[in-house]
Amino acid sequence: MTEHPTNPNETEAILSLKGVSKNFGAVSALTDIELDIHPGEIVALVGDNGAGKSTLVKILAGVHQPTSGTIRFEGQPVTMNGPADALKLGIATVFQDLALCENLDVVANIFLGQEKNAWHLDEVAMEVRSWELLNELAARIPSVREPIASLSGGQRQTVAIARSLLLEPKIIMLDEPTAALGVAQTAEVLNLVERVRDKGLGVIMISHNMEDVRAVADRIVVLRLGRNNGVFAPDASNEELVGAITGAADNAVSRRASRLSSSAPSEGARP
Ligand SMILES: Nc1ncnc2c1ncn2[C@@H]1O[C@H](COP(=O)(O)OP(=O)(O)OP(=O)(O)O)[C@@H](O)[C@H]1O
């Protein structure tokens, strides 16, 4: 893992959640979530199916509104009534489906949804900006005039990430960016995620792949049944992470946790 320039603990959080809950009717999808994201850090959000990861990402993307709790952006409490509000604040999201148009080329996809932008119809300016964004990510795209249909899974993810950087966000959320990618493409996308972090953005990455998470994350935040269930350093063992994710009652993880709770705080799990 590359060294990053700022120590998250010394910088103010860009995004800070306190006591965020979300109910869908009688279903409590999230309860009292606490989460801080600092500039220049990758926070992995992990949890089993139904743990609340997507709900949390949708709240931060402005798709859902929390039932209660406070979201602060750069210290100010904010309300996001829709995805446009999140984008305007500087929170970009790359959803798992990527939302790319197969038949359009890379430039058109990067500028998709920017129809009202002054430069939208300036083909040369758009192409130049597309190359800039891709070069910043050191992305390997053969031509920005290729239709998306001819690109690999990793290249598509790259285009979707480049597009999310167009509006110069401060936070980027990536939902399973390496799902369904092969080994080499996964490595390439993880390098890309690190470059986004090294630009000083706060990155939230949802993943089910603990190897990927440990490879790039600065902190691993576990959700279980809609609640915070521990924050781990990337050197946490698989056993610790799986224990927190599944809540396995009698295993090395729970025994370690009870041992730790009766002694001094440790560097490892902080449930
Ligand atoms: N629109 C909705 N209406 C009702 N319940 C919902 C809605 N969205 C999510 N839920 C419920 O909220 C809980 C959390 O779901 P969520 O999709 O956020 O979990 P997840 O961690 O993203 O799971 P997965 O890894 O399977 O995507 C689940 O019990 C789910 O059924």
UniProtKB/TrEMBL annotation:
Pfam families (UniProt xref): ABC_tran
CDD domains recorded: ABC_Carb_Monos_I (cd03216)
Keywords: ATP-binding, Nucleotide-binding, Plasmid
Molecular function terms from GO: ATP binding; ATP hydrolysis activity
Protein name: Various polyols ABC transporter, ATP-binding component
Presence of keyword ATP-binding: yes
ABC transporter domain segment(s): 15-250
Domain of life: Bacteria
SMART domains listed in its UniProt record: AAA (SM00382)
InterPro entries per record: AAA+_ATPase, ABC_carbohydrate_import_ATPase, ABC_transporter-like_ATP-bd, P-loop_NTPase
